[in-house]
């Protein structure tokens, strides 16, 4: 015993304890003599504990107490390894689940916008970054053209081009098209991992893993990140989630390093997608919420101030953004909150160094100066906003704030199907069972409420609003729904597994209770004998009562964990597993979407590429401009960029006009071929006939002689026998239904509209059909040459000149075939 106290070594120890003073040893021995009961069979371990707690210095004792046990550290390490492998499997799942289009069909780019991005990426990898910034494309928006480097978000193309360069550096010879096809599945795995990091900062590892696996399979995100969907959202969603993660990480740690990384992530988001304005408005709203609710801290300042300064400076470097980063109303909220947080930070700093009386005087001065500065800033902002007809807001932003704005003033925005408000069933189709778990996740974030959880709540609220205005923004709502559902499922798993463990341990305790009953009786008898021997005073009794009452009060105030019956817990776990199976099966059905439209269009674009001159101009509605330029390599009049409303209105007016007037419009634009998409044979509902009213509205917004009521019968859009003469004589009707009666034996039944067409037999005078695909999906017409009409005019003029001789006039009028 004395050897142990003097710093000896136990058989299992590897190092001696530090030396102690002799006085400390004597005092320790006296203490042990007054407490002989503690010298039991566990004397060595108990003495070692007393030696460390009493004799070692306080710093060393504290360090020994906080050192984790080997079992806990091993458990922590094994948990990290398990989480790493689960994340790896989630990444593989997110990547592989998006390859069904490639497995079922082939490695091909689909949709409309991805073809333009693929064409830009080809130019970037072939000519370099410098030529990319200065690229003037003369094959789009004829005769205006387009400066590609200054009108496109370069994040997607730069990312894919960098991936292609890296792969070729390691001698992996993949084509540019293959890299573009698989960019979206790769970044879907990155987005799942970023979701794990974000949710982990809010509610822990379990919630993060659950949210990551949900995002990997959510239908709304799959539709935008499937293989071949080479669009901006493929990398933008990852940038959005990763920017939010770095903001929360900076908010939790107060690290300037993470704040700088957050600015760079925001810069990547600005390069990738115009939806970066959602970030630069959501984060200031959260900062203002924290200030109003009294949760200001230096960590909040570090998380926000560098983002505004560095993020705005780097955003201005993107050519498509430029000075819009400081001149448009979408960014003014961040600057206003930036001023407010500096005023609040100054107030807190002054409060810390001044007395209460002096602080009141200084606070009055600061508030007055701050109000003057804010009024000056607001006056400048009002002056800048008032000078703009749209009050400094873009058309898409105004349509988000006022859902009726686009349909009233900018029909080109309202004509896009992605800009329409969603229906209620679309929420279930896009996020499936997560719609029922989101409210539970919101409730779980309030217990306890932190800065990170308040940000996630604000994120879900704002994304729900914007997704209700524009169906395209369901893509922004999906990560928030996955985060909330992950938190809800994680808390539910904790409660259910805790309940099962509780009952399992309880049954184990009952089995071992019989073996431990003798030991408990002996210890109780010993305690009774000690109480009888000792005769404590009244003061000792009071102290003992106080010591007994304190833990009782603490145990009453402590919250007991929720424990459910074991039957309910098992049933709930099985129900969650069934919901997960249904979720996976539903998403598998969503992946089975057909790419038949692409293959039907390939036939037409191949014909254009092989049977027309390289400088021929092709007119179509703007939806097909990107595909025509990329797949057929022909010059188009309008495309999906929609930057010139007048040019699009010109094409819409031509489609809405009679054949002769349309020929004159197209001929003035040097158009040789006109392409229309028709789905009346195969049942394709997104054809040009269903889009025709938008052509009328857009054309009528610029050219007043085009009026929408002229194409409606009693306010209804009809193509049958009740259709108006203006509708039946329009170029779009004739190009779509020319020779349509030959497909079904003369009936002329339109499968999409569900009726027989009104005008079945007619001929074209100024256009001629040159190609129609096998399924009548795409039809191409050629403008008849102008010389036929000029020849008739010259004969007329000759007949007028020779009117002096009556005999010649008679012969000429008889031989003239154009009368």
UniProtKB/TrEMBL annotation:
<feature type="transmembrane region" description="Helical">
    <location>
        <begin position="427"/>
        <end position="446"/>
    </location>
</feature>
<feature type="transmembrane region" description="Helical">
    <location>
        <begin position="265"/>
        <end position="289"/>
    </location>
</feature>
<feature type="transmembrane region" description="Helical">
    <location>
        <begin position="332"/>
        <end position="350"/>
    </location>
</feature>
<keyword id="KW-0812">Transmembrane</keyword>
<keyword id="KW-0328">Glycosyltransferase</keyword>
<dbReference type="InterPro" id="IPR048999">
    <property type="entry name" value="STT3-PglB_core"/>
</dbReference>
<feature type="transmembrane region" description="Helical">
    <location>
        <begin position="453"/>
        <end position="471"/>
    </location>
</feature>
<keyword id="KW-0472">Membrane</keyword>
<comment type="pathway">
    <text>Protein modification; protein glycosylation.</text>
</comment>
<dbReference type="GO" id="GO:0046872">
    <property type="term" value="F:metal ion binding"/>
</dbReference>
<dbReference type="Pfam" id="PF02516">
    <property type="entry name" value="STT3"/>
</dbReference>
<feature type="region of interest" description="Disordered">
    <location>
        <begin position="787"/>
        <end position="819"/>
    </location>
</feature>
<dbReference type="GO" id="GO:0004579">
    <property type="term" value="F:dolichyl-diphosphooligosaccharide-protein glycotransferase activity"/>
</dbReference>
<feature type="transmembrane region" description="Helical">
    <location>
        <begin position="204"/>
        <end position="222"/>
    </location>
</feature>
<feature type="region of interest" description="Disordered">
    <location>
        <begin position="516"/>
        <end position="554"/>
    </location>
</feature>
<keyword id="KW-0460">Magnesium</keyword>
<dbReference type="GO" id="GO:0012505">
    <property type="term" value="C:endomembrane system"/>
</dbReference>
<feature type="transmembrane region" description="Helical">
    <location>
        <begin position="301"/>
        <end position="326"/>
    </location>
</feature>
<feature type="compositionally biased region" description="Basic residues">
    <location>
        <begin position="787"/>
        <end position="801"/>
    </location>
</feature>
<feature type="transmembrane region" description="Helical">
    <location>
        <begin position="362"/>
        <end position="386"/>
    </location>
</feature>
<feature type="domain" description="Oligosaccharyl transferase STT3 N-terminal">
    <location>
        <begin position="82"/>
        <end position="484"/>
    </location>
</feature>
<dbReference type="Pfam" id="PF21436">
    <property type="entry name" value="STT3-PglB_core"/>
</dbReference>
<keyword id="KW-0479">Metal-binding</keyword>
<feature type="compositionally biased region" description="Basic and acidic residues">
    <location>
        <begin position="524"/>
        <end position="554"/>
    </location>
</feature>
<keyword id="KW-0464">Manganese</keyword>
<dbReference type="InterPro" id="IPR003674">
    <property type="entry name" value="Oligo_trans_STT3"/>
</dbReference>
<protein>
    <recommendedName>
        <fullName>dolichyl-diphosphooligosaccharide--protein glycotransferase</fullName>
        <ecNumber>2.4.99.18</ecNumber>
    </recommendedName>
</protein>
<feature type="transmembrane region" description="Helical">
    <location>
        <begin position="562"/>
        <end position="584"/>
    </location>
</feature>
<feature type="domain" description="STT3/PglB/AglB core">
    <location>
        <begin position="615"/>
        <end position="674"/>
    </location>
</feature>
<feature type="transmembrane region" description="Helical">
    <location>
        <begin position="81"/>
        <end position="103"/>
    </location>
</feature>
<feature type="transmembrane region" description="Helical">
    <location>
        <begin position="234"/>
        <end position="259"/>
    </location>
</feature>
<feature type="transmembrane region" description="Helical">
    <location>
        <begin position="147"/>
        <end position="167"/>
    </location>
</feature>
<feature type="transmembrane region" description="Helical">
    <location>
        <begin position="179"/>
        <end position="198"/>
    </location>
</feature>
<keyword id="KW-0808">Transferase</keyword>
<comment type="similarity">
    <text>Belongs to the STT3 family.</text>
</comment>
<dbReference type="GO" id="GO:0016020">
    <property type="term" value="C:membrane"/>
</dbReference>
<keyword id="KW-1133">Transmembrane helix</keyword>
<dbReference type="InterPro" id="IPR048307">
    <property type="entry name" value="STT3_N"/>
</dbReference>
């Amino acid at each position: 015993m004395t050897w142990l106290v003097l710093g000896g070594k136990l058989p299992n120890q590897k190092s001696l304890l530090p030396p102690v003073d002799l006085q400390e040893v004597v005092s320790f021995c006296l203490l042990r003599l007054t407490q002989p009961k503690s010298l039991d069979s566990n004397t060595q371990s108990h003495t070692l504990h007393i030696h460390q707690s009493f004799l070692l210095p306080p710093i060393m004792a504290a360090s020994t107490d906080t050192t984790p046990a080997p079992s806990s550290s091993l458990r922590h390490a094994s948990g990290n390894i398990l989480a790493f492998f689960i994340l790896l499997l989630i990444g593989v799942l997110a990547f592989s689940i998006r390859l069904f289009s490639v497995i079922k069909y082939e490695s091909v780019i689909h949709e409309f916008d991805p073809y333009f991005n693929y064409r830009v990426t080809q130019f970037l990898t072939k000519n370099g970054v410098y030529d990319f910034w200065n690229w003037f494309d003369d094959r789009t928006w004829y005769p205006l053209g387009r400066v590609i480097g200054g009108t496109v978000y370069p994040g997607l193309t730069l990312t894919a081009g960098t991936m292609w360069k890296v792969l070729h550096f390691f001698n992996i010879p993949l084509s540019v098209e293959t890299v573009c096809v698989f960019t979206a599945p790769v970044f879907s795995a990155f987005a799942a991992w970023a979701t794990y990091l974000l949710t982990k900062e809010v509610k822990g590892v379990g919630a993060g893993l659950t949210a990551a696996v949900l995002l990997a399979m959510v239908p709304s995100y799959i539709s935008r990140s499937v293989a071949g969907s080479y669009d901006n959202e493929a990398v933008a969603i990852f940038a959005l989630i990763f920017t939010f993660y770095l903001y929360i990480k900076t908010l939790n740690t107060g690290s300037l390093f993470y704040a700088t990384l957050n600015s760079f992530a925001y810069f990547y988001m600005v390069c990738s997608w115009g939806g970066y304005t959602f970030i630069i408005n959501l984060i200031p709203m959260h900062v203002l919420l924290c200030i109003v609710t009294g949760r200001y801290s230096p960590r909040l300042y570090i998380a926000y101030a560098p983002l505004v300064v560095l993020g705005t400076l780097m955003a201005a470097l993107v050519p498509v953004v430029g000075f819009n980063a400081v001149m448009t109303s979408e960014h003014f909220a961040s600057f206003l909150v930036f001023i407010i947080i500096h005023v609040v930070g100054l107030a807190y700093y002054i409060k810390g160094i001044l007395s209460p009386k002096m602080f009141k005087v200084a606070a009055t001065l600061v508030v007055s100066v701050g109000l003057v500065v804010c009024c000056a800033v607001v006056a400048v902002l009002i002056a800048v906003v008032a000078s703009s007809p749209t009050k400094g807001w873009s058309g898409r932003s105004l349509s988000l704030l006022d859902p009726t704005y686009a349909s009233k003033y900018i029909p080109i925005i309202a004509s896009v199907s992605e800009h329409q408000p969603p229906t209620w069933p679309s929420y279930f189709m896009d996020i499936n069972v997560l719609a029922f778990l989101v409210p539970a996740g919101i409730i779980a974030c309030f217990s306890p409420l932190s800065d990170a959880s308040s940000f996630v709540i604000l994120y879900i609220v704002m994304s729900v609003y914007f997704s209700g205005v524009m169906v395209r923004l369901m893509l922004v709502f999906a990560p928030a729904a996955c985060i909330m559902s992950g938190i809800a499922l994680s808390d539910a798993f904790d409660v259910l597994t805790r309940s099962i463990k509780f009952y399992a341990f309880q049954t184990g305790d009952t089995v071992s209770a019989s073996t431990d009953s003798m030991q408990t009786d002996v210890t109780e008898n010993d305690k009774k004998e000690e109480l009888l021997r000792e005769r404590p005073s009244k003061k000792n009794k009071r102290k003992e009562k106080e010591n007994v009452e304190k833990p009782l009060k603490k145990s009453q105030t402590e919250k007991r964990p929720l424990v459910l019956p074991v039957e309910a817990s098992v049933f709930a776990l099985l129900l969650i597993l069934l919901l997960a199976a249904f979720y996976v099966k539903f998403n598998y059905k969503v992946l089975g979407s057909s790419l038949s439209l692409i293959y039907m269009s390939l036939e037409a674009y191949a014909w254009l590429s092989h049977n027309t001159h390289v400088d021929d101009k092709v007119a179509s509605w703007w939806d097909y401009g990107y595909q025509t330029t990329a797949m057929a390599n022909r010059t188009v009049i309008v495309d999906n960029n929609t930057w010139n409303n007048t040019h699009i209105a010109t094409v819409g007016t031509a489609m809405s006009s009679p054949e002769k007037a349309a020929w004159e419009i197209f001929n003035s634009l040097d158009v040789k071929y006109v392409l229309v998409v028709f789905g009346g044979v195969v049942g394709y509902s997104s054809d040009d006939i269903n889009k025709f009213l938008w052509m009328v509205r857009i054309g009528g917004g610029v050219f007043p002689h085009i009026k929408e009521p002229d194409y409606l019968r009693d306010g209804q859009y009809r193509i049958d026998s009740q259709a108006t003469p203006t509708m039946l004589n329009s170029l779009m009707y004739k190009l779509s239904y020319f020779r349509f009666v030959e497909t079904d034996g003369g009936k002329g039944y339109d499968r999409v509209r569900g009726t027989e067409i009104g005008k079945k037999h007619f001929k074209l005078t100024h256009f001629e059909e040159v190609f129609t695909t096998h399924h009548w999906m795409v039809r191409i017409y050629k403008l008849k040459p102008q010389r036929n009409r000029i020849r008739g005019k010259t004969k007329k003029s000759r007949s007028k000149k020779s009117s002096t001789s009556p005999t010649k006039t008679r012969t000429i009028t008889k031989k003239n075939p154009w009368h």
